[in-house]
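[job 0412] stage=complex_fold ligand=adenosine-2'-5'-diphosphate status=START
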Amino acid sequence: MNAYTSNVATGAEGAQAFPIPDNVYAETVTEVRHYTDRLFRFRTTRPASFRFRSGEFVMIGLPNAERPVFRAYSVASPAWDDELEFFSIKVPGGPLTEYLQKVKVGDTILMRKKPTGTLVIDALLPGKRLYLLSTGTGVAPFASLIRDPEVYEKFEEVILVQTCREVAELAYARELYDDVVNHEFLGELAAGKLRLYDSATREPHPRQGRITDLIDSGKLFVDLGVPPFDPSVDRAMICGSMAMIKDTKDRLERFGLVEGANNAPNTFVVERAFVG
Ligand code: A2P
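[job 0412] stage=complex_fold status=DONE, emitting structure tokens
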């Protein structure tokens, strides 16, 4: 155990202090931003020794119990960033997010030391067009990837797709897209390459419907002005709920794309968006 302890929002009056376990980094929250009553992002300091590949996830917890609850969170910030960013759902009564949603600047976040994950460029064969297909907080690993210069070196076109229930939930990815295209150095790399295609399912929206339905109707391709998925040029990453992954994977496989992994790169990869 480390010598020091930390107070953090526990949702209860008079937060209790617990020792920080040895095998984790204890980082400080630098920014918290609530988008809706279901979604928020937070940023933390980054340990100097922490290395990860854009698209990977880490286990996050709070020092609010002797044995803290950890949940997998995709790192939403790019590998070059001095800070770490995470995008989270708020699950009422969730063992971690019930407390995590109350963190404030200056609070301590625990992070296990080893990042991992399949949504990495190395798990895909070279291609021309990269689809990043997400629902809800599944956009987080892609927030990292679209801020990574390597993506623009490897692909001619990068299409960030996100479906959410409500229009307000699309704000995080919209801002991200604007930040990238207006960024002094990423903007130049992403110019003419990065595209955002978002849709809402439970509110009126110009592109209403689930990503799966937009693929089935062909509206996705018509709107983007691109041919349907083609395994010779198109690559994809999927991140969403178990059901969304299964349904989206089915569509890609129908077009002849094949699931890959770190040790067996292919034309698409998947990862579950984590909640809790
Ligand atoms: P819907 O509103 O029709 O359920 P959630 O917030 O529940 O994770 O959902 C995020 C978005 O993912 C919602 O727009 C939801 O649509 C959509 N979604 C849920 N299940 C699937 C699925 N199996 N395939 C594609 N999209 C899905």
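The radius of gyration is 19 Å.
[job 0412] exit 0
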